[in-house]
Every structure is written in structure tokens, then in C-alpha cells.
Amino acid sequence: MRRLTVRTASRTYPIAVGRDVLGELGGLVMKTRGAGQAVVVCDENVAPLYLERVRRSLADAGLAASQVILPAGEQEKSLARAEELYGVLYDRGLRRGDTLVALGGGVVGDLTGFVAATYQRGIGFVQVPTTLLAQVDASVGGKVAVDFRAGKNYVGTFYQPSLVLADLRTLDTLPPRELRCGAAEVAKHGLLAGSAVLRRVRQLVRAPLSAAAVTQELVAGSIQYKAGVVERDERESGLRAVLNFGHTVGHAIEAATAFRRFSHGEAVALGLHAALRLSRELAGLPEADERMGHELLDGLGLPGRLTKARARDVCDLIGRDKKAGQDGVPYVLLRRPGFPVLGVRVPPELELEVVEWLRER
Ligand code: NAD
Ligand code: GLY
């Protein structure tokens, strides 16, 4: 098992990554949180696969464990679902010393974290991510949120977990499409970090993407890159914005297609294609690096063409991005792999041209 530590201004916490490590959860929760109630939140797909093992581990460690099982899907990241969860916690008499355990993908993690951050102004929160996307990205760094109308992650806060436990064995049951979505975020980290992280994700392209190809080094390296950024800028007052690479167009595509046509990771892949093209136009990214980026994403089997959305609608939604100011949205672009540039303004006509290009790729 590989152990990492994230040190932020608000909290220092351990991340453990390994294969077949779910059984360690109870002991680790006891160590980081102490005795008390633990409510495991998971969705209907994850519950039959991993809930029993998690409950047993918590109970064996002496914690009073119960669960909430939700439907699966992005629509669960809602204020209505959060309110329902507050009701469950109230009925079960949860106190600040007790803990919510998010067992699942980024949807369960973001929602559970939002509830943990706000219930009684903050109760215990542990992440047990079971998708590649959640292991390398969503479970790390403390962004928790629900969606609001067409606004992705529009209502939320920063709330670091007390512990993250990522078991690579859980990826064995992940549908291939979800595995590819996680690979999109690893590709993002690779392009931003350059060096070893990029080398490892490029190796994934050589064989058909499978859970067996996802190594502890790949996941831990990707987490380490993100954790390093979060440690320097926990609340996105500067540097952390680099992690939005590909997300400005990606989030707008998700919203323009009603969160149904593309999953988050697929929309991010499309956003990364757009960001690579803009990087060549506006940040001097060499053409060969741009091509390498497109080939990487295509090689991971991610969708490369925007369908079922009009370019104009996507651009209108980009304008509603949380980061938009009076003069538009500041983009993260790439000068070279490993050298992101923050705060680039993209002329509206170029933004439209690039989104049109995504429809025609
Ligand atoms: P998800 O949570 O919807 O999970 C994808 C699907 O896989 C679901 O159907 C789920 O039931 C299923 N699943 C999960 N684990 C499984 C397993 N081990 N075996 C079989 N099926 C399994 O989606 P996701 O891609 O994990 O997360 C996407 C969400 O994460 C989005 O809402 C996005 O906004 C958010 N996100 C948050 C951050 C952050 O920093 N907080 C970063 C990136 C993404
Ligand atoms: N996923 C972007 C961030 O955590 O900042």
C-alpha cells in the first residue's frame, strides 16, 4: 500500500492507495476519526459490490456502521438529495464527532462531502473512491458541491476529508466507459505535470484500457500531482485553477447536453481537445505537442467529437461559468506539457470557432 499525506491550511490527511485494501478501512477510520457512528453513503451500483465489506471492516474496528443507498447518476448531486440526507442524519442522531463515508464515484463523493461540510457546520468525512476518476481527482482536494439548474457544481464549498482510501481492486468491476472517463483526468494531470505522470498515462494507450493496466504508481503519481497543487493553493486563489484545464469547455458541454449525452470525464476529454487547440493558437504550444495530446485522448478511447449540442449554446454556457468575470472566462492553457499558463482570455470568435471544430473533428 502506498501512503501519501496532503497538507493544507485547513487539514492534513492521509491518502492510502493499494490493491485489496478495503478491509483496512475500519482501522484507518478509527485512527483518524476515533470511535463513533459511521454512515456509509453509496449508490445502487456500488452497494451490492462493496458495501458489505466496508460495513464489516467498520464494525470489526468497533464503529457503529449504517448506510444510505442512493440511485446512481449526476442528477443525485442536488440540493433536494442533500436535504434528504440531512433528514437521515438527524433521525440517526449524528453528532459532529461522527463520520460520513463516501463509498463510490465522484457523484457520491461530491454530494456526501457537501452534506458533511454543512450538516451541523461540519461533521467527519472520509472518501473511499471506487472509480478511477474519483481516485485520481474527485476524492482529493476537498471540492464538494451539488449542481444547481444548469450550473455544474454551482453550490458548494471546500471541505477536506480526514482520510482517503483508494482500493485499485474496485476498478475491476468498473464499466469500460467509466474507466476511460478516469483516464481523461489522468491525461489532464499528465499534460499539466509533464514528466513521469505523462509518461505513465501515455503507456496506457499501448494496450486496450483495462483495470489491470491501471497501476498503483499511475494512480499515486496522479494523486501526488494534484495534492501538490492543492497544498500550495487550497481554495483556488491562484495556482489551483490549473486543475480546471479542459474544464471550461467541458463543463459547458455537460450542461449543454443536459448532463446526459456525455459523462463528466468524456466532456472533459472534449474540453481538453479544445484547450490543446487554443493552447497552440494563444500560448505557443508546439504543433507536435498539440498532436500528441489529441492522440493521447483518442488513444484512450475517449470521444473526440461534440455531438448533440450547438456550438453557440456551448459558448453561452461558457459565459455562465463560475469563474467568469466581466471580461469573460479565464482559460488555463499549455505552453508546453508541464508548463500551464493561467488566466488567458480567449476572443469570443475564436472560442466559437474551436467549439465548431470540435463538432467537425
Ligand atoms: P459517478 O460517481 O457517477 O460513477 C460512475 C458510475 O460508475 C456510476 O454509475 C457508479 O454507480 C458506477 N460505479 C462506481 N464505482 C464502481 C465500481 N467500482 N464498479 C462498478 N460501478 C461503479 O461518476 P465519476 O466519474 O466517478 O464522478 C463524476 C463526478 O465527479 C462529477 O459530478 C464531477 O463533477 C465530479 N468531480 C469532482 C471533482 C472534485 O474535485 N470534487 C473532480 C472531478 C470530478
Ligand atoms: N477538479 C479540480 C479541482 O479539484 O480543483
List the helices and strands and how they pair.
Elements (H helix, E strand, L loop, with lengths): L1 E6 L4 E7 L6 H9 L3 E7 L3 H14 L3 E7 L8 H13 L7 E6 L1 H13 L5 E6 L2 H7 L4 E6 L2 E8 L4 E5 L8 H18 L1 H10 L11 H17 L14 H10 L7 H19 L4 H13 L11 H8 L11 E7 L2 E7 L2 H13 L1
Parallel strand pairs: 2-9, 3-4, 3-5, 5-6, 6-9
Antiparallel strand pairs: 1-2, 7-8, 10-11
Helix pairs in contact: 1-2, 3-4, 5-6, 5-8, 6-7, 6-8, 6-10, 7-8, 9-10, 9-12, 10-11, 10-13, 12-13
Nicotinamide-adenine-dinucleotide binds next to helix 4, helix 5, helix 6 and helix 10.
Could you explain how this protein is built, in words?
With 361 residues, the chain is of the alpha/beta class. The protein has two domains: 2-173, Rossmann fold, CATH 3.40.50.1970; 178-360, Dehydroquinate synthase-like - alpha domain (Dehydroquinate synthase-like, alpha domain, Up-down Bundle), CATH 1.20.1090. Helices cover 45% and strands 20% of the residues. The protein is built from 13 helices and eleven strands. The strands form three sheets. A seven-stranded mixed β-sheet has the order 1-2-9-6-5-3-4, sandwiched between helices. A two-stranded antiparallel ribbon has the order 7-8. The chain has a two-stranded antiparallel ribbon with strand order 10-11. A hairpin with a 2-residue loop joins β10 (330-336) and β11. The protein is globular. The mean pLDDT is 96. The site of nicotinamide-adenine-dinucleotide (NAD) has 29 residues, from α4, α5, α6 and α10.
